[in-house]
């Protein structure tokens, strides 16, 4: 292509020389010089244009090369970061955690195998006539070991009508600094001598569901007032409100509880419902649905009075439970009755599902030490502090958030 351009320049210079010779009457030498000058000027201009094009192509190539080098540098930096991250990974700790889990699993499997072997040995050594005797024997009635309340239901109704029901708070601390974690809302009845009757002294155990609903509604009302006023004062607290199937089994009460929490969503995160283990085992689908809705609103649950930790932690966490309460004395003296895990491992295992263990009924400093050594950092009991009155500034204006539970005649 460039050769054709030069041929065209030569032809144009020759034409200029011929035109100057014949048209302008130049001498042959003058015509030749004119043609030569024109050709040289054209060649110089052509070379300049070609040089500019070459420089532009070179600059573009250098720019592309620079971008490629920048991309390679970024890729190298990312690769270097990944290599450094792999170098910094502490595989030993992870392997130790896996080894610990495998060890615990092996212990559980061995205990199960030993138990099955004992059962098989017992079956082989039992005479064949024993099953028939067992079949013919009537089932034994389950013994109720819990004492009956000393205050009858009629007196409890009268106390409610006379508004002698009060709510005190009992602290739950967090170890090792013993900072307050939350407070149990404890319903109590004022007596004539200025003393207070505790919950076991008056709470109905058979029947009286309407009264139980009224007491739990009163506690929820007090909890909302205290939580709202504490939040307004800039000192939010966590309150545990008692809840039982007496309230959960009643459709109107379920609706009222959900409406009360919905109307006070700002302090829903400060409330947790404490539910007994027996009530939790008997929950119906409708009652579980209510607990799930409350969890979506921000309210947590606490499993109170747990007699065993052989439960599905994932299922409890899915229902909204945040902690499990166990008797500190029983757990420290008879850990095998609560769990097959080692006492130092069960708290960490529960934390994997977002559940904390709370030791209740702590009676001395030694029990606090034992709980902390086993990884249980929440504790409650007489050694820490008993139920006491709430500050008066947190108890004002209850009517603004009153929770009314429909009353029904007892069957």
Automatic annotation (TrEMBL):
Residue ranges annotated for the EAL domain, each copy included: 149-401
Q: What is this protein called?
A: EAL domain-containing protein
| Pfam families named in the record | EAL
Reading the lineage from the top rank, the first entry is Bacteria
Key words, A-Z: Membrane, Transmembrane, Transmembrane helix
Parts of the chain that traverse the membrane? 29-50
Species lineage, top-down?
A: Bacteria, Pseudomonadati, Pseudomonadota, Alphaproteobacteria, Hyphomicrobiales
Q: Which PROSITE patterns match?
A: EAL
Q: What InterPro entries would the database entry show?
A: EAL_dom, EAL_sf
